[in-house]
Amino acid sequence: MKHPKFIITNRGYLRLDIVYLHRDLLMPHEDCLGGGFYEYDYVVDKLMLSGKSFDYGYPQWSKIDVLKIPEAFKGVPIVYRDPRGDELILTEHFTIEYY
Q1: CA angle 27, 33, 35 (to 5 degrees)
Q2: 62 in helix, strand or coil?
Q3: pLDDT per residue over 38-80, tens digit each?
Q4: CA angle, corner 81, sides to 98 and 67, nearest 5?
Q5: Distance (Å, whole) CA 49 – CA 80
Q6: What gap in Å lies between CA 49 and CA 33, rounded to an integer?
Q7: Which residues sit opposite 67 in a β-bridge?
């Protein structure tokens, strides 16, 4: 069954889609720095990321400096909620580039 999943790549790309496996989001010659699941909160207009990839583990946010986000999410707050319930507001924490 497909689920809404995300990954971050070794080049800082945030990729998300509804896929079977997290590896389905990788392009050739890329490495994955973890991932998880996403949902869009329409009430407050933000993208919520959480959890971990069963294949690649928790996102390794500390290994990237610039987060590259799809152009469709320009201006949308993106938040990662860790297992303890703490939230990291990615769009405020990182330098953002859109693709």
Answers
A1: 85
A2: helix
A3: 999 999 999 999 999 999 999 999 999 999 999 999 999 999 9
A4: 20
A5: 4
A6: 14
A7: 96
Nearest to 12 by CA among 38, 26, 33, 27: 33
Q: How many other CB atoms are there within 10 angstroms of residue 87's CB atom?
A: 13
Between CA 76 and CA 96 the distance in angstroms is 12
What tokens appear for 8 in the block?
């971050």
Whole-model pTM? 0.94
Distance CA 33, CA 29 (A): 13
Beta strands in the chain (DSSP E): 3-9, 14-19, 32-41, 46-50, 66-69, 78-81, 87-89, 95-98
Q: Where are the alpha helices (DSSP H) in 4-97?
A: 90-93
Nearest to 55 by CA among 24, 18, 83, 29: 24
